[in-house]
Write a structure and sequence with these properties.
Strand order of the largest sheet: 1-4-3-2-5-6
Number of strands: 6
Number of domains: 1
Distance between the termini: 15 Å
CATH architecture: Beta Barrel
Structural class: mainly beta
Helix content: under 10%
CATH class: Mainly Beta
Number of helices: 2
Radius of gyration: 15 Å
Shape: globular
CATH topology: OB fold (Dihydrolipoamide Acetyltransferase, E2P)
Length: 127
Amino acid sequence: MVHENSVIRHREDLRFLDGTFVECSGRLKEFRRHEKRRDLDSICLVNVIVTPVPLGESIYLDHIWVLKKQLSKIDIPLIQNSRIFFSAKVYSYRRLGGKSIDRGLYGLEDYGILPISKIKRDETGSR
């Protein structure tokens, strides 16, 4: 649920939360296999809500890619179109390869979320 006062942002807006622990939820939309390395297989989460812990204004992201192995480590069932809930830490990194080179983004700072633990929810979405 996105609050009326929330602003739709880009992943770059995660810079305000770099190094911060957050709670995240998102819907598993797409699974992408890396052509050469299985450890780089990734999952696209859509309609992502990132909320600083303990309290803070949520940031809504249209989508973000997360490595499949990071979600598997915290025992999140990887079922397409399901909504998942997890704790994470926001981190920054330099874009160094892949499509970044083709798009002229090589070497630029970008932001991601590192899943740390699963948040258990009941069928109503409550903790």
